[in-house]
Amino acid sequence: MGFDALFRIIGESLFPSRLKKGLAENSLKAGLDRPPYLLFGILFLAGFISVIFVDLWFVSNVDLSSVLGLSYKASLLLQPFSIFVITFSYLAVYFFIVLSAIMLYFDYSAFQRTRRMEALLPDFLKSLSENLKGGTTLEQALWNSIKPEFGDLAKEMQLVVKRISLGEDTSSALMSFANKYDSAEIKRTFSIIAESLESGSNLTPIIDMIAEELVDTFQLKKDIATTNLSYVIFIVVIVVFVAPFLFALSTQFLIILQSFLQKMSSANLSSLSSTQSSGIFQLFKGLTEAKEPTMTPEQFVNLSYAVLSLVSLFSSFIISQIKDGNLKSGIKYVPAFLASSLILFTILVKVLSKFFSALI
């Protein structure tokens, strides 16, 4: 038995049984022939190995007697329970993050796969119509229309044809494929074909009409995306350029203000003792008594990174909603937005720091 088979067995054995059905369905939607139990096995083993190092670090670096104010004997008695809590908490968080990331990947892969099939659907329907015009049955026309250039759609049609050849009703096989993916275009197309097939209608003009409507629908979506391009550009400029610049400028203002107040608080105002009642003295007295900002520049920089990350995340989904009409496609914009805004902010902090250093 090789390591691949061993890890696959471990992954399949440790994966929760109640989630296996959903995992299998999501794997098929993502274009995988079977669930990636090999990957799960490797990740499970990595989780158990990493928790050992976490426990060793906890035992060697955390002194429970000083942290909790307990005696040495009491801390020794409490240590096994503490290790159990640390182990359980770490594994719970680790597996939650791993499973969430993998399911998110499956969901996004299925979404991208659906979009690719939607784009190929009009050409596939035209090919299907041409085969029907040649006098073939729907089953034979489906098989003849399966071509390599149709990619994922061709693979799905192969499964449909296989199910029909095994005795399943044609309408049922078509609707099983249509309901498999979250696509209004695919569901509407094959539900119309299935209903027309059951009613005995001539499929050729119906399929031609559906193909033309799909082309018009996709073109309309492109026109809408082009119309909203100005909003997309505005959001990109704000997130990538304006927001990092304002946060970097605010950081320098905080540094200058903190330095100014420190110098004023240490200034010697004894020379103004003769003019204590004057407005100038009251002004300087107020400045020297002013409190320094409660947030340090380092804390503000960390806050800026967090805020810019959130702004980039939400802006990606807003742009995807405007441009593509859905939120899921915004995942592909997140890395670019995060990297651009955070890197520019880091550069601007250093550049502005040198520019304003003369004022400090």
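Second entry:
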Amino acid sequence: MSLLPLAACIQLLVLQPAAEPESNVVSADNSGEPTTDAASPAVATSPTTEVTPAVETAANSEDVRATAGENSPPAPAKAEPTDATYSEPEMSHGTLVKDLEPPHPARVRWVLDSAITVGGFGTFTILEMWVTPQLAVNVPAQQPPIGGADAAALGHFRPTAAKVSDVLMFSGIALPAVYHGIEAGLRKRDFGRRYGTDLLIYTEALAVNLLVTETLKFAVDRHRPFTHLDPTTVDPSIRDELVAEQAEVDSAKSFPSGHASMSFAAAVAGSTLLTMKLASKRTPKARAVLAVTWIASLGLASTTAALRVVAGKHYPSDVTAGALIGSTIGAVIPLAHLRPRRSKMWSNVDVTPAAVGMRGLSLQGRF
């Protein structure tokens, strides 16, 4: 038997894929009779099979490789990055830092500060409505002489100036509530918490100032300047009003001036709160707003205090003491609520999204 057909059969057996099911193989023994072998791969041949050399063998090999490739599972495709894999957050420079800022530079304890505010106004109401009417009017017939700067308040009684001072005082109290509402509205976020914090701190300062001033009035028991006047020496049109006010218990509550203390407490507390909120901007517009607010508020408070002397309601020392008390409380209460400031080293640090195509945040700043 020629060796060429036998070599071709061996090559086909080697290249046959293992995944093919087992089948009988027909081969030829030495006697030339076909025999069946169940343990061999499925390749059929015979002693008379003619196999062309080289070219036909290579073609059969390519067919076997193609058959094996069709039966094997496809290789997983390599994932290519697409635009849908990651999208940059839509935020501008500095958005994250702005979102992390608290709604107000001052921090309040709503229950505690509300209790202080309600307690202050409530105690004042009790003193004014129930305690004061129980006191007896005690105007001495001969009062001690008044000298120095306080003598400027003697000898006159002007109800019109007193009424104007009332209007200015209440206007000065309402003014901070107006411009803080405008400022909170222009910020366009956290309006409720920002404006609510302003109002709570502001009213707390007024309540504390009102209670301190009223307590001092009871303790000092100083008579007002118009109690020195003889009603027969004033204009008849205001004589009855003068006599009525001299007979009131309130005529012995001259020191300190409540109008002056409330006006300055409102001016300083409102301006201090606005300064706390705008101090970080450091722009010419912010500086101009703060300058106008401080000048207008203190000017209104000073005018109110001066009219109390002109009206004959207070001595200059009364309004001076009231201005000092109101200014002190108006500054201390807001500053007591101020949050701790960040270290100066971190004052110019900004956090922004990372560059396009990257995940994370970028930390930028001057150290």
